[in-house]
Amino acid sequence: MTVQWQEQVSLKPYNTFGIDVKARYFSQAQDDQQVRQALSQAHQQGLPVLVIGGGSNLLLTRDIDALVLHMASRGRRVLSDDGERIVVEAEAGEPWHPFVQWTLAQGYCGLENLSLIPGTVGAAPMQNVGAYGVEIKDVFAGLTALDRETGELREFGLADCAFGYRDSVFKRNPGRWLILRVRFALSHSLQAHLDYGPVRQRLTEQGATEPTAQAISDAICSIRREKLPDPAELGNAGSFFKNPVVSAAQVERIRAHYPGVVAYPQAEGQVKLAAGWLIEQAGWKGRREGDAGVHRLQSLVLVNYGQASGAQMHALAQRIQADILERFGVELEMEPNLY
Ligand code: FAD
Ligand code: NAP
């Protein structure tokens, strides 16, 4: 069987920045067989393959001289339920937020803080997606990936994934592993994580003193909708920079000049700085250069007002990085994957 590829396809609908570059070839994979077929055909033709999900963590700076393989596999299932712990599995192409809502509708707790993150299940382990104090490593039960070097299937447990802050073994070895399906360990009883940002306050305002997982999800969705631009209306890839983790001594040096610096203590005496705060202090919030800009409400989010190219977005990001380094002595690392 030969999988049909389209030629010279615009990737604008396939990346949330809305960058208009072309893929030399484009194809979708709905199951493992189509994945293998596409990889094998590309291999025979000596073509590289770029796997994408929802395109919500990409910055495309040029035409992609490769086969772009869009993961469109669907399926979610309960693998086990012992009355307390439930293991669910979802295919890589499942859209993330509807999957989270499905788990909540079944009464399964654990993914509520990760509501309204765009993208797919298969990409979530790439950067150990996290929000409001929860990361997928906290509910991770395993995944199945295809080793693109050997063509063999491999099962990954928690330790194998080397999850870190917006990081994993998959992110550190780009193109090596194609994630086919992911498993999550959820619970019938709620362990609420409310002490992050305005979550508790929002629930209190709504009179939810003992909130359900669905109520937490709803509160987080409402906070996110107020603060973050909807990619359907304004192109963006969420947080553009990771929050830098620096030494306590460096924070004290910054605090001497900026007493209001926003910093969160981490393990081993390290401190996480809010990158958005640094960018705002440096005067970038709401700034616009052509169609590339910094969002007016959340300075960690770079936005495409319409016609910005990936190179223009990248150039703006590099100017911000240079400015933050000069002012604060802090290096900002990009979060989206650059192609
Ligand atoms: P893509 O952008 O399609 O791909 C990302 C990377 O993963 C690429 O390198 C791609 O090659 C690779 N990849 C994709 N699928 C696979 C696969 N099946 N196997 C192997 N590699 C694969 N992130 C957070 O962590 N927390 C947030 O709260 C959050 N909020 C966001 C809010 C907005 C408005 C936006 C636009 C983004 C946000 N993000 C957030 C970033 C992004 O949504 C997540 O990182 C998401 O998991 C990316 O999924 P995707 O399917 O869109 O990946
Ligand atoms: P926020 O609530 O304004 O907080 C600003 C920053 O401070 C966040 O980046 C967060 O770090 C950190 N923070 C807040 N409370 C904290 C606490 N109690 N302990 C440690 N760190 C704390 O952030 P926001 O921009 O509205 O985003 C809310 C959540 O959604 C955050 O967790 C954020 O990571 C996530 N989010 C991620 C993306 C993305 O693309 N990656 C996009 C939108 C939102 P952390 O980022 O390290 O959590």
Provide structural commentary.
The protein is of the alpha+beta class. It has 3 domains: 6-71, Uridine Diphospho-n-acetylenolpyruvylglucosamine Reductase, domain 2 (2-Layer Sandwich), CATH 3.30.43; 76-227, Uridine Diphospho-n-acetylenolpyruvylglucosamine Reductase, domain 3 (2-Layer Sandwich), CATH 3.30.465.10; 235-338, UDP-N-acetylenolpyruvoylglucosamine reductase, C-terminal domain (Uridine Diphospho-n-acetylenolpyruvylglucosamine Reductase, domain 1, Alpha-Beta Complex). It is 26% helix and 27% strand. The protein has 9 helices and 20 strands. A 5-stranded antiparallel sheet has the order 6-7-12-10-11. A 4-stranded mixed sheet has the order 1-2-5-3, with helices on one face. Strand 10 and strand 11 (153-156) form a beta hairpin. The longest helix has 19 residues, at 310-328. It is globular. The two termini are 30 Å apart. The model has no long low-confidence stretch (mean pLDDT 97). NADP nicotinamide-adenine-dinucleotide phosphate (NAP) binds next to strand 8 and strand 13. Belongs to the MurB family.
In terms of topology, how is this protein built?
Layout: E1 6-10, E2 22-29, H1 32-44, E3 49-52, E4 58-59, E5 64-71, E6 76-81, E7 85-91, H2 96-105, E8 130-131, E9 134-135, E10 140-147, E11 153-156, H3 158-161, H4 169-172, E12 177-187, H5 199-205, H6 213-227, E13 235-239, E14 245-247, H7 248-257, E15 263-265, E16 270-273, H8 275-281, E17 288-289, E18 292-294, E19 301-304, H9 310-328, E20 337-338
Parallel strand pairs: 2-5, 3-5, 4-20
Antiparallel strand pairs: 1-2, 6-7, 7-12, 8-9, 10-11, 10-12, 13-19, 14-16, 15-16, 17-18, 18-19
This protein binds flavin-adenine dinucleotide (FAD) and NADP nicotinamide-adenine-dinucleotide phosphate.
NADP nicotinamide-adenine-dinucleotide phosphate (NAP) binds at residues 130-132, 195-197, 227-228, 238-239, 243, 264, 274, 276, 298, 300, 335.
